[in-house]
Amino acid sequence: MDSVYTITQWITSALLPPTCLCCGRPGIAGMDLCAGCYRDLPRNRPACQRCALPLASDLPRCGHCQGHATEYEAAVVPWRYEAPIDGLIQALKFNGQLPAGRLLGTLLGRELARRGTPSVDALIPMPAHPHRLRERGFNQAAEIARALGVFTGLPVRYRWLVRRRHTSPQTGLGRAHRERNLLGAFAARPAVAGRRVALVDDVITTGSTLAEAARALKQAGARSIVTWSVARAALQL
Ligand SMILES: [Zn+2]
Ligand SMILES: [Zn+2]
Question: Is residue 74 domain-resident?
Answer without folding.
Answer: yes
